[in-house]
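User: Quick sanity check before I run a bigger batch. Here is a single chain. Can you write out its predicted 3D structure?
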Amino acid sequence: MNSIREIGENIKDSPYFSGEVSYDVPMNEHTTMKVGGKASAYIVPHDAVSAAIVVQECKKNAVRLVVLGGGSNVVVSDDGIVLSTERMNAISFCSEQKKVGLDGAPWKSGTLVRVSCGAGALMNDIVAFCASHGLWGLSCFAGLPGTAGGAAYMNARCYEKEASDVIASVTFLNFDKIVANTDIKVAEFQEIYHNNRVDWSYKCSPFVAKNILIVGVDFYCIAVEGKDVSDVIFAKNDAYVHDRIVKGHFKAPSAGSVFKNNRAFGKPSGMLVDEAGLKGFSVGGAQITPWHGNFIINTGTATASDVGKLVDVARERVRNMTGFVLEPEIIFI
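Assistant: Done. Predicted structure follows.
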């Protein structure tokens, strides 16, 4: 088996690979919680074929591959090879629809428009693109510190709307079809999932725990006609961002909501953590925020171990108090 550096150099030297390969990259620079050790190799492919080259080389050498989007819902502790989708971030209209401005646009109010996004496109950039073209439907995701691929994978939920409510299709690489030591042919391993609305559930998608890599997401939006409509949509985006600020989402580095809510139990997870007396409780540099029981922040020196231990404390305290077991939403990798 080749060393990590040899694997990285093989990927970089492939005539089919377009992207960047770096070594010993601190992962705290690539996650919203600012926690993580060093990735032995940090690889940023520019397209699906390049991503497949990375997968193929890792499979050939039996090396674990970690896929990273916006780093907003994860806590990274292990080193190894990390594939980042950050450069697969194009945003455009679906190929069968013309890109047009608002002046003289052929769309009428109510027209359903598909917006095609690379997996690494930031949700903030996507909602801004839609607003600039008078497209409604994604404003509630403004301020979400994640990517299109992450939103699809986790079925992100914001202000009572789920990503699955607005996703038309998801393009992904099927790792099981990428065979070591064979030519990379996109048609053989790239698949498209068309949203049937029945494969999704609360913060869970058809892609969770599957051996795949999301490379693109198409969203449905609704065209809106009228004077200054873009300004109206941008203002709505800003209102959602302001609400997140007021709630303290951006006061300190965090990974977003720590635990999923279980509506059958009847209380939000943050309330359960609060009632367990854990607001402000710390382990090392990780702290449950004093203002919200379902956020853990990095006060400056947190490690992945600190965060993991704090999650365990919260789960144990709530279980002892209520008998209910909190389900983590953040992913430890």
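The helical segments are 4-13, 48-60, 123-132, 148-154, 186-189, 229-246, 269-275, 304-322.

User: Great, the batch can go ahead then.
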